[in-house]
């Protein structure tokens, strides 16, 4: 990676020329929009809302399905950037099928999005159950062989440190935290929920303290690297995640607020902070907030 920033899944990661541009504009790696077991439209509009301190979305995992991506993979085979393919499934078998098929295209890493609902696990989401998350990670790891596996966790987990440790034990090579935080907005004049799905996931500046707390807890429980995300908008936010224990930094919502120049801007501001504070490498300050 040319730097520690990563385009988060769900933002601009659907079309090769745009991904290429995001890389040229400074992202260290690109994550694809999560790929599922079949074609899926996602939820009806409205699906995304900027509400003042962040974004709330309920796009509902729209996906062409792994079977319908040959053209994209053909283009992606010519990529010059590190590519993380995000995958989801509603049960273990679906995760296994998607993982196996996506692995054939040799992305540089596979991220298992284990925070989607509708699982066989008594309706719980995978990412909030230690047992279910370990089963998914073990299964996906078996299917993808040598390709590094990232477990993407939800901040809704009752003890994210324990879930992360379970994922590490099950074969994850890295942890990504966090996915969005559940929320809701109501239009008081219409007297109705704004999102068609009623509930959605919050991202952007409002969730930065949630992400920091999760990365801090995960760092105390695992040895594998952490891809920290949630509300990173500037160099100081990025340094805060590194001090909590992150090795790499995901950026999503800030591309909506600031455009794709945000990757270069975050890197420049990190370097300025390091210079001012006489810090030679990020390794020097990784996890320092743990004392
Ligand atoms: C519109 C939208 C779509 C998203 N789609 C995905 C997705 O497909 N898979 C996934 O793992 N995370 C998805 N996310 C979550 C982001 O990858 C990221 O974890 C979250 O937005 C926090 O980072 P941020 O505050 O920098 O945006 C999505 C977020 C938004 C706002």
Could you walk me through the main structural features you see in this protein, from its secondary elements to its overall organization?
With 291 residues, the chain is of the alpha/beta class. It is built from 10 helices and 14 strands. The strands form 3 sheets. Strands 1-2-5-6-7-8-13-14 form an 8-stranded parallel barrel, surrounded by 7 helices. It starts with a strand and ends in a 6-residue tail after the last helix. Flavin mononucleotide binds at residues 8-10, 33-34, 48, 55, 57, 59, 61, 86, 113, 152, 179-180, 203-204, 207, 229-232, 250-254.
What keyword list fits this structure?
291 residues, alpha/beta, 18% strand, binds flavin mononucleotide
Query: Uncertain runs with pLDDT below 50, 5 residues or more?
Result: 118-123
Number of helices: 10
Q: What is the residue-mean pLDDT, rounded to a whole number? A: 94
Order of helices and strands: EHEEEHEHEHEHEEEEEHEHEHHH
Question: Within the largest sheet, what's the order of strands?
Answer: 1-2-5-6-7-8-13-14
Shape: globular
Distance between the termini: 29 Å
Q: What portion of residues belong to β-strands?
A: 15-25%
> Helicity, in percent?
25-40%
Q: C-alpha Rg, in Å?
A: 18 Å
Tell me which oligomeric state these chains represent: single chain
> Structural class, please?
alpha/beta
The total of beta strands comes to: 14
Say which molecules are bound, naming each kind only once.
flavin mononucleotide
Major sheet, described briefly?
Answer: 8 strands, parallel, barrel
């Amino acid at each position: 990676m040319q730097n520690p920033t990563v385009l988060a899944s769900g933002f601009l990661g659907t079309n090769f020329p745009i991904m290429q541009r995001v890389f040229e504009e400074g992202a260290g790696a690109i994550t694809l929009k999560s790929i599922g077991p079949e074609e899926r439209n996602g939820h009806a509009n409205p699906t995304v809302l900027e509400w003042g301190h962040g974004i709330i979305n309920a796009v509902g995992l729209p996906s062409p399905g792994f079977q319908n991506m040959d053209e994209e993979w053909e283009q992606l085979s010519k990529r010059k950037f590190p590519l993380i393919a995000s995958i989801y499934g509603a049960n273990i078998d679906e995760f296994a099928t998607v993982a196996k098929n996506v692995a054939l295209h040799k992305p540089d890493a596979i991220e298992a999005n284990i925070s989607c609902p509708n699982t066989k696990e008594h309706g719980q989401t995978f990412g909030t159950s230690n047992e279910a998350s370990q089963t998914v990670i073990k299964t996906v790891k078996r299917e993808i062989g040598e390709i590094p596996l990232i477990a993407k966790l939800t901040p809704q987990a009752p003890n994210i440190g324990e879930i992360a440790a379970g994922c590490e034990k099950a074969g994850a090579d890295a942890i990504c935290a966090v996915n969005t935080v559940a929320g809701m907005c109501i239009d008081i004049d219409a007297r109705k929920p704004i999102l068609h799905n009623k509930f959605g996931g919050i991202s952007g500046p409002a969730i930065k303290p949630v992400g920091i707390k999760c990365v801090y807890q995960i760092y105390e429980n695992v040895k594998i690297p952490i891809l920290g995300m949630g509300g990173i908008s500037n160099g100081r936010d990025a340094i805060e995640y590194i001090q909590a224990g992150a090795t790499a930094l995901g950026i999503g919502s800030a591309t909506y607020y600031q455009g794709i120049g945000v990757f270069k801007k975050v890197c420049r501001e990190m370097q300025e902070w390091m210079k001012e504070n006489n810090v030679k490498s990020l390794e020097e300050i990784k996890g320092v907030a743990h004392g």
